[in-house]
Amino acid sequence: MDPLRLREATADLHAQTEEGVPLMKPDLTLTEYVSVLQRFYRAVAAWETWAETHVPEQWRAMFEQRRRSRLLLEDFHSLGVTSDEAAWSELPFPVLESDASFLGAMYVVEGSTLGGQYIARHVEEVLQFTPGVGDAYFRGYGDRTGEMWKEFRAVVAGIDDRDSGEVIDGARKMFGMFAHCLKEGQTVGA
Q1: Name one GO molecular function term (predicted).
Q2: Tens digits of per-residue pLDDT, 94-138?
Q3: How far apart are the C-alpha atoms of 55 and 130, rounded to whole Å?
Q4: Rounded CA gap, 115 and 153, in Å?
Q5: Domain span including residue 40
Q6: Nearest CA-CA partner of 97 in 108, 109, 105
Q7: Is residue 102 part of a domain?
Q8: 52 lies in some domain
Q9: What are residue 81's phi and psi, to 5 degrees?
């Protein structure tokens, strides 16, 4: 499957999801930032918990390397925020019915590592953070982010075109869940 096709087929939901994230505001406050982190945690922790038992075996190692909820917990700790891990337990997770749809959902989470690099630099400037302290989640894989994204894109490119509809469906469902969490997300205790 051409990864560009996946990007184009989800561009509308990507834009809607970004609308719920005020992180690039020039006057971003710490309170706003923490609120967004809490909402991201809700989505990412729900994804990782669900994916642990649903990841197709051929992608298990790739999934395990890319778990990032712990980075959000590091950010909470750095910022002196307590996290309530039960805050996401009631989150309804989209039904992903195939390996291809799982990969589509993973595309959304992985794609966020690229935008996270820009967000991290902005947050560091506006909130005067030391790089990686309070914004570890947005720093993603650090210097390896580009390399890991290329590896993931290669997996998507290896998907048979006959399964591309399922990949797109999984990505669209995941964007929907993220948009819901980021717009209406329940926050965790501060």
Answers
A1: heme oxygenase (decyclizing) activity
A2: 788 899 999 999 999 999 999 999 999 999 999 999 999 999 999
A3: 35
A4: 15
A5: 3-184
A6: 105
A7: yes
A8: yes
A9: -105, 135
- Sign of the torsion formed by the C-alpha atoms of 102, 105, 107 and 112: negative
Euclidean distance between CA atoms 62 and 158, whole angstroms: 15
Distance CA 126, CA 29 (A): 8
Q: Which two tokens stand for residue 12?
A: 């509308």
pLDDT digits (tens, 9 = 90+) for 123-178: 999 999 999 999 999 999 999 999 999 999 999 999 999 999 999 999 999 999 88
Q: Determine, yes or no, domain membership for 189.
A: no
How far apart CA 144 and CA 140 sit, in angstroms, is: 9
Q: Residues near 6 by Cβ (< 8 Å), separated by ≥ 6?
A: 104, 107, 156, 164, 167, 168, 171
The amino acid at residue 97 is: E
